[in-house]
Amino acid sequence: MMERKEQMDRELIYIKPDEIETKSFKIIDEELAMRGIVLPLEASDKAHDGCRIRRAPVIKRVIHTTADFDYADNLLFSDDALIRAEKLLMSGCVIVTDTNMAYAGINKKALDKLGAECICYMADEDVAREAAVRGVTRATVSMERTIELDRPVIYAVGNAPTALVSIYENRLKLRPGLVIGVPVGFVNVVAAKELIISSDIPYIVARGRKGGSNVAAAIVNALMYQLTDR
Amino acid sequence: MMERKEQMDRELIYIKPDEIETKSFKIIDEELAMRGIVLPLEASDKAHDGCRIRRAPVIKRVIHTTADFDYADNLLFSDDALIRAEKLLMSGCVIVTDTNMAYAGINKKALDKLGAECICYMADEDVAREAAVRGVTRATVSMERTIELDRPVIYAVGNAPTALVSIYENRLKLRPGLVIGVPVGFVNVVAAKELIISSDIPYIVARGRKGGSNVAAAIVNALMYQLTDR
What is the pLDDT of residues A168-200, one digit of tens each? Predict the structure, then answer.
C-alpha cells in the first residue's frame, strides 16, 4: 500500500483547488491509521465538556503544514488548553507572535470573524534598541511589552526559546491565557518548553527541538477554524 | 555523548543573543559528525570554480530552521544552481515567493545590501479573482504574473506544487533563473518536484513531501548571507 501511494505521488493528478486540502487530510488520516496512531479526539478531563475545539484537528493541521508525522507524538496539550483557547478566541483576544513569519501565516479572515487580533513587536525599532542595551533578545523584550495590552493574550511562539522564558518569568504580571510553545532549534529550546510544561500556564507545546513559525501559525489557524467553520 | 547532550538540553544555559546562532550551528556540525553525514562543500562540476556560495551552509541553515536532519539527504542541487544564485543575487534579481510567510521570512537587510527585491502576488485581489474564474490556484496565477517582470527571477516556492507546475509549463516564456522548489504536503508535491528535477531549470529542491515556507526563506537567506557576510 505504501508503494502504491508513493507511485501515485510521482504522477501529477488533476484536482480542483478547493479539494486539495480535503484530499490532503484524507491521506493524513489513512497514514495515521497505517502507522497505528490513534489521535485523541477529546481532552482527558471533564472540563472539556461542551468545548468545540478538539486536539486531533490541531495535530493533523500541523502534520499537513510540515509533512512530519513526529508531531503526532510531540504535541502536548495541558488539560485546560482547548477550553481556554475557545474562551479566549470567542472573547476577542490578542494573539502575540515572536516572528513576522508566524504573524503572516495566521489567517486574517478567521481573526476578523472572531473579532480577534494579531500583533508582533519583533520589527519595532525601540524593541531592537532596548534589547541591544540590555543584552537580551528582541523576543524577550517583545513578550515583556505585552504587559501594556488590556486584553487577554494567546502567545504563539515559533522561534525564540527566550520568549517562553520571558513569559514564564513574568507569568504573574502577564497572566498568559494560553501559550503555544513551539520554538525550533538547538540552544535552550527543549529546556524552555519543559519550563512551560512544568508550570501552571495553559499550553500547547511541541516537545523536543522541532517546531517553527509555520507550526505556530498552523496551530492558531487550527484552533480558529474549529470555531469559524471556515 | 547523546545522553550528555540530552541532559544539557533540559537545562537552560546562559548565552548572549548574538552567540545563539553560532552555538546552534556548532551543535548541528557535531550531530552531523555523530550521524556520519559529510555534507558536500562544493558542487560536483567545474562550473563551480570561483563561486562564493557553497551547499553545506544552505543545508545547515535548513536544518537550523527545522531541527530536522532529513534535509541533509533531501536537499538536491542542480550543478548550476549555486553559480546561478550568485549571478542572480549580485545583479539585483527579483525573488518571487508563493506565500506571504516566505516573503516575511526573507531577510530584508540582506536583500537591500544586494540590491535585490522580494515580491509575493498571493494576497492580490485580482490574482484571487482570476484564479476563481479559471478554477486554478492563486499560486498558478501568481507565477504566470511574473512574465511582466523585466528582471531575472529566483522563484522561492514553499507551499504550492501548482506554482512549480506553472513555472515548468511556462518555462520558455518565464526563463526561470533559479527555482527553489520546497513545497510541503501530500497532493502532487512529490510529482511537482520531480518535474523540476527532470527539467533543465536550475534548481534547489527538497525531494519528497517535506519543505515549507520557512524552508524556502531559509534557503534564500543562506544563499544571500554567503554573499553579504551578513
Answer: 999 999 999 999 999 999 999 999 999 999 999
pLDDT tops 90 at residue B60 = yes
The minimal CB distance from A187 to the residues B15, B100, B105 is found for B15
Cα–Cα distance for residue pair B70/A70, rounded to 1 Å = 12
d(CA B188, CA A12): 5
Q: Retrieve residue B201's grid coordinates.
A: 531549470
Chain mean pLDDT for chain B: 93
Amino acid at A93: C
Instruction: Compute CA A106 distance to the chain's CA centroid, rounded to the nearest angstrom.
Output: 10
ipTM: 0.93
Q: Is pLDDT of A2 > 70?
A: no
Contact B65 A184 (CB under 8 A): yes
Query: Does any CB of chain B come closer than 8 Å to the CB of residue A30?
Result: no
pLDDT digit string, tens, across residues B163-192? 999 999 999 999 999 999 999 999 999 999
Whether chain A has a CB inside 8 Å of the CB on B197: the answer is no
In whole angstroms, what is the distance from residue A192 CA to residue B157 CA? 32
Query: In the prediction, which pLDDT does B6 show?
Result: 65
From the list B20, B103, B185, which residue is nearest A104 (CB)?
Answer: B103
Q: How close B11 gets to chain A, by Cα (Å)?
A: 5
Confidence of residue A1 (pLDDT cuts 50, 70, 90): very low
| A213 near B CB under 8 A | yes
**How does strand B178-181 pair with strand B203-206?**
parallel
- Contact with chain A for residue B192, Cβ under 8 A: yes
A64 in active site: yes
| pLDDT top residue among B105 and B49 | B105
- The reply to whether A28 touches chain B by the CB within 8 Å rule is yes
Chain A residues in contact with B17 by the CB 8 A cut-off are 131, 135-138, 162
- Residues B12, A191: C-beta atoms closer than 8 Å: yes
* pTM score: 0.94
Residue A184 and residue A165 in contact, taking contact as beta carbons nearer than 8 Å: no
Amino acid at A78: S
Kindly determine whether residue B101 and residue A27, on different chains, have CB atoms separated by under 8 Å.
no
- Spell out the residues 6+ positions from residue B63 whose beta carbon is closer than 8 angstroms to its own: B28, B69, B71, B72
Residue A45 pLDDT greater than 50, yes or no: no
* pLDDT for the residue B196: 98
Q: Scanning the structure block, which residue is given the C-alpha cell 501559525?
A: A217
- Pairing mode, if any, of strands A75-77 and A203-206? antiparallel
Chosen for mutation from B9, B16, B98, B109 (greatest number of chain A CBs closer than 10 Å) is B9
